[in-house]
């Protein structure tokens, strides 16, 4: 018994936690930055792009800025941890350096959002969407709306997207401590709709940021959860029926990301070969990815062989190889293989 107790004490609560699976966002704690750490801050553009592993961002019409991340456990500002509900220790730092001239009606304001696989997800449900927000530079950030739409994908003749945006009035006061803001959203049924055949239908949920604003917004503990249809319809930050943030632990959250995005490391391979022969490595992906991923190779080194490539890629794996250009010793080294099947 004492041994079991000691092992339990050694377990890191930030890595593994009991699950209730209330939160439909993946990486709601913003602690996954695969492939981005060396490139941070990430410059925002007028085209939606991934600004962390599972979150997309857009600078807004006429706007500019960047996204960075804050790790509470690694900075002098670690007293922020007292304002977080669980073991989460990260946040997304949104820096709007040039104000946007967009409008909510035109849907071209700055925003950040997540694309949830399958448009039918949460259909016919009442949900509460909540974020913990703090404004640390500039002026008060007045959030004008919840971004939400059902996208029926591509392929075949899918139905047109259904816009579910909801105007709100969330005043995030400059210098205040982080505070949770929430709103109720009624997601309509998809009955009678045609879903595309390419497997890329989705429900997108996020926040619109205001026009004319510059400053820094810190975003923490994003959550979307099913609520009672009788919950509050307040639009000033107290809507829905938010519960404490569900932090599932970094290990569990990483497993949820694997079907969408992963990076693997290859090893040095040497082989005596004849000209034209292939030298390579097969990667088996378990669990499989949600769709056939795009493959990119970084820091590739080859000797006596053509540039490294990949083929026979599927959701279950890929083969990375090079082709010998002459008989003799062949060497191949790929530092990072990135597989991306995000929506």
Q: What string, H for helix and E for strand, traces the elements in order?
A: HEEEEEEEEEEEEEHEEEEEEE
Number of domains as seen in the coordinates: 2
Query: What is the CATH H-level superfamily of the largest domain?
Result: Galactose-binding domain-like
CATH class of the largest domain: Mainly Beta
Biggest beta sheet summary: 7 strands, antiparallel
Backbone shape: globular
Q: What is the CATH architecture descriptor of the largest domain?
A: Sandwich
Strand percentage: 35-45%
Number of beta strands = 20
**How many angstroms separate the termini?**
47 Å
Helix content range of the residues, please?
A: under 10%
Determine the structural class based on helices, strands and strand pairing. mainly beta
Specify the number of helices: 2
Q: Point out poorly predicted stretches.
A: 1-18
Mean of residue pLDDT? 86
Classify the fold: give the CATH topology of the largest domain: Jelly Rolls
What is the radius of gyration computed over CA atoms, rounded to a whole number of angstroms? 23 Å
């Amino acid at each position: 018994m004492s041994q079991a107790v000691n092992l339990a004490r050694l377990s890191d609560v930030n890595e593994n936690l009991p699950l209730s699976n209330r939160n439909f966002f993946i990486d709601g704690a913003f602690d996954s930055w695969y492939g981005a750490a060396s490139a941070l801050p990430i410059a925002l553009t007028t085209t939606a792009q991934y600004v962390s592993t599972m979150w997309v961002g857009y600078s807004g019409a006429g706007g500019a800025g960047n996204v960075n991340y804050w790790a509470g456990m690694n900075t002098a500002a670690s007293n922020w941890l007292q304002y977080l509900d669980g073991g989460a220790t990260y946040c997304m730092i949104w820096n709007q350096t040039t104000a946007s001239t967009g409008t909510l009606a035109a849907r071209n304001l700055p925003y950040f959002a997540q694309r949830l696989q399958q448009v039918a997800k949460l259909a016919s449900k009442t949900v509460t969407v909540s974020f913990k927000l703090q404004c640390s530079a500039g002026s008060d950030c007045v959030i004008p709306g919840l971004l939400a739409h059902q996208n029926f994908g591509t392929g075949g003749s899918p139905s047109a997207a259904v816009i579910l945006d909801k105007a709100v009035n969330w005043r995030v006061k400059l210098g205040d401590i982080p505070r949770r803001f929430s709103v109720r959203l009624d997601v309509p049924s998809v009955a009678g709709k045609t879903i595309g055949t390419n497997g890329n239908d989705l429900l997108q949920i996020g926040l619109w940021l205001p026009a004319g604003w510059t400053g820094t917004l810190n975003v923490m503990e994003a959550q979307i959860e099913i609520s009672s249809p009788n919950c509050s319809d307040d639009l000033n930050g107290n809507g829905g029926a938010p519960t404490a943030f569900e932090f599932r632990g970094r290990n569990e959250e990483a497993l949820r990301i694997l079907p969408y995005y992963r990076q693997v490391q290859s090893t040095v391979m040497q082989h005596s070969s004849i000209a034209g022969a292939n030298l390579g490595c097969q990667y088996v992906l378990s669990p499989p990815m949600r769709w056939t991923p795009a493959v990119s190779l970084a820091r590739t080194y080859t000797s006596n062989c053509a540039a490294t490539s990949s083929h026979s890629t599927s959701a279950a794996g890929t083969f990375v190889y090079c082709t010998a250009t002459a008989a003799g010793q062949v060497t191949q080294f790929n530092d990072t293989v990135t597989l991306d099947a995000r929506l």
